[in-house]
Amino acid sequence: MKIIKNKAISWIDISKPTKQDIEFVAKQHKFHPIVLDELLHASTRSRVEAHDQYLYLTYHLPVYDPFLKTSRKAEIDFLITKNKVITVHYEELEPINNFIRNATNNPHFRETSMDNTGKLVYTLIEEIINFSMRQLRHIEENVTGLTQELFSGKENTMLRKISYVKRDLLDYRIISRPQEILLNSLRIAGVRFWGEEMSVYFSDLAGDHLKVIQHLENYQETVESLEETNAQLLNAKTNAVMQRFTVLAALTFPLILTTSIFQTGVIDKFDASPKIFIIAFTATLFVTVILVILARKKKWL
């Protein structure tokens, strides 16, 4: 647990909460028992709840997992009163650690960001959105890598890599999209809680989050175009292979025809001398060579 104070307000940050932590939170304000109970475990959805003297906010952010090669959901819960902000999360998070470092080492940052609890919540969520924007860098790097490998002739490998990036984009989108609704709800609830002067701050948060969504959609369109192009290349390569097999099958036709004639015994009825076999073999070889030359000229082989 970390506590940072200034003249007007205080911020209490709790990582991996225990029952003792929740008991401490209960002493800070008359929070509803159901709200306190929910702080012990992660929530399934983002939301803003306006109570009589406080706001309860659950915010989800994407965190990239290099082992799973996709983004997973992390959660920060906010309990907000007029003089305190309590944040609860279930793992160490970079944006929270960045804010703690800035607030601890930079007195000017602490005074400006903790002018009131509304400004503190705004600055915290702004840091979270900036972190979400940075989390898009690995997607950008993956998309750039796919673009560079597109014409390398490794369509099957590309198909697997594209699938990983698409899954990451989908997971990131599932996590980030609901926060757009949450931020709009926070703007309405924030104006009622702090006054009209906070409207511009929370509108700014919604605009910054929209930039994240726009980048995400751009990457989604790019990956879909890469997937379509890769599918066309793979289809063209498959058609070329099938064409070669068809030509090779055609080249074996004279040999099959000659073999069939000897097997039916038609030759034996006229003359079983070796000359017949030599003539038939030479004719078959000649026709096969002609067909090979014709296929090479037509670039079928």
Please provide the ordered H/E string of secondary-structure elements: EEHHEEEEHHHHHHHH
Count of discrete alpha- or pi-helical segments spanning 4 or more residues: 10
Name the average pLDDT: 85
> At the third CATH level, what is the topology name of the largest domain?
Beta Polymerase, domain 2
What is the 3D form?
rod-shaped
CATH top level assignment of the largest domain: Alpha Beta
The main sheet comes to:
6 strands, mixed
- Strand arrangement within the widest β-sheet reads 1-2-6-5-4-3
Radius of gyration: 35 Å
Distance between the termini: 72 Å
Instruction: Name the CATH homologous superfamily of the largest domain.
Output: CorA soluble domain-like
Tell me the domain tally. Answer: 2
The CATH architecture of the largest domain comes to 2-Layer Sandwich
Give the percentage of residues in beta strands. Answer: 5-15%
Number of extended strands: 6
Helix-and-strand structural type: alpha+beta
